[in-house]
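Hi F.,

I've been meaning to write this up properly since the lab meeting, where we talked about keeping a consistent format for the predictions we share between groups. The idea is simple: the sequence comes first, exactly as it goes in, then the structure tokens exactly as they come out, then a line or two of notes. No screenshots and no reformatting. I'm using this chain as the first example so we have something concrete to point to.
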Amino acid sequence: MQIEIWSIGKENETYISQGIEQYFKKIRPYISVSLHIIQAGKKSSTNDPEIAKKQEEECILKRLQPQHYLVLLDERGRKLNSLDWARQFQQMMNMGVKTVVILIGGAFGVGELVKREAKEIWSLSDLVFPHQLVRLLVSEQVYRAFSILHNSPYHHT
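Output, unedited:
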């Protein structure tokens, strides 16, 4: 199984990229992981949230393939702790999932078509975070989940 983190928005600040790369180095002995930043168009091209969501939705759906198992991150999604993330990934591996796509939607969320494609909808927190920070948080949680699955001392229960 491999994991792809997809995120709508601009490129990362250097310190975010460095943090993500540190976690990716730690994850790679366990699983293949990558970050894909999707730029859906010029932010200034529209101030209308529905138009922005539609543009982003088109970009996401073009990339989505039948072998992808889409996990959407949404503030109204199911809240999972770190052990739950590990269990979910183990379950996906047991199901024979080839590629898990963890999607960080745009500033206005995602369109209904993307929501319908999602196999799971998870929430990181009741708090709101900037997209770049969410990328770093997701990278850390993927590493934490696989360290749990491999009995690494990183996660203390």
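Notes:
The longest strand covers residues 68-79.
The CA atoms of residues 88 and 145 lie 9 Å apart.

If this format works for you, I'll send the rest the same way.

G.
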